[in-house]
Design goal:
Layout: H1 5-25, H2 29-39, H3 45-70, H4 76-99, H5 102-126
């Protein structure tokens, strides 16, 4: 099935948004790790995010990718279309994060977690 220009734009935008979120917050498993580093270990927000990226991206990204690929759960076309947005979005998100003071960064992170949690809750129980 051919991708429409709108679908391709949505995939690229998702890559950019995903990249910005990854650059700013180290999303994914990092959400829990970041909260742990900040709340339990007393890390400053920026350091927690950088630490989570170095701890999670290389090992879990590669191993997770290999397992999903082995099982046939990788959409190569969509993945490759997302890649440029993730790359440039992560650079932009990391730069944006550096412009925020640690307290503001923690507040933005908390709002993001709340919104995602509310969306998940309504989605899970609303259907």
């Amino acid at each position: 099935m051919a991708d429409s220009p709108l679908r391709l734009a949505a995939i690229i935008l998702a890559g950019i948004v995903g990249g910005v979120a990854a650059g700013m917050f180290g999303v994914g498993g990092g959400i829990l790790l970041i909260a742990f580093l900040v709340l339990v270990l007393g890390f400053e927000q920026h350091r927690a995010q950088g630490t989570s990226l170095v701890a999670l991206v290389p090992p879990t990204g590669l191993l997770g990718f290999l397992e999903y690929s082995r099982s046939g759960y990788v959409s190569w076309r969509v993945g490759l279309l997302l890649m440029p947005g993730i790359f440039f979005g992560a650079v932009a998100g990391s730069w944006l994060a550096q412009t925020l003071k640690p307290r503001r960064m923690r507040q933005v992170f908390a709002v993001l977690l709340f919104l995602i949690g509310a969306w998940q809750a309504f989605s899970a129980w609303g259907r």
